[in-house]
């Protein structure tokens, strides 16, 4: 009995079906970590802040955390990243203070910006410079 050519072709192409049948849209999610957290040389306390920008197809979010001795509870808030991909805004609050809006600029090396309520970084400057962290930080640098 002779097998029709189209049937041979269909059977031969079966290994290709799973590869394409389950292919969905690309997931362009990403997490970018920025931090100025360091270890105080005398007390070994952690000082500073970290910002994790979480980019999802349906929106952007920021995981914000402050360290004063140890890390405080994190906040996860909605972020707005401009279409240019560099300007960012988000709003966080402090338990003892009113909410603060952060406006900044993302670069390959850092997230630089300030809060509208006068918050200052650990060295007393109103301009925050969070360095980009390539991956998980097993240790924090010494404060200078």
Amount of beta strand: over 45%
CATH class: Mainly Beta
The profile of the biggest β sheet is: 8 strands, antiparallel, barrel
The figure for the number of domains is: 1
CATH architecture: Beta Barrel
Strand order, largest beta sheet:
1-3-4-5-6-7-8-9
Reading the helices and strands in chain order gives HHEEEEEEEEE
Output the radius of gyration. Answer: 24 Å
Backbone structural class: mainly beta
Shape: globular
Mean pLDDT: 82
- What distance separates the N and C termini? 84 Å
* Number of helical elements: 2
Number of strands: 9
CATH third-level topology: Lipocalin
Estimate the helix proportion, in percent.
Answer: under 10%
Low-confidence stretches: 6-14, 16-22
Q: Explain this structure to me?
A:
The chain has one domain (30-133): Lipocalin (Beta Barrel). Strands 1-3-4-5-6-7-8-9 form an 8-stranded antiparallel β-barrel. The chain is mainly beta and 144 residues long. The protein is built from 2 helices and 9 strands, in the order ααβββββββββ. 10% of the residues lie in helices and 48% in strands.
Provide the fold topology.
Layout: H1 5-13, H2 17-21, E1 30-35, E2 38-39, E3 46-56, E4 59-71, E5 75-81, E6 87-94, E7 97-106, E8 110-115, E9 128-133
Antiparallel strand pairs: 1-3, 1-9, 2-3, 3-4, 4-5, 5-6, 6-7, 7-8, 8-9
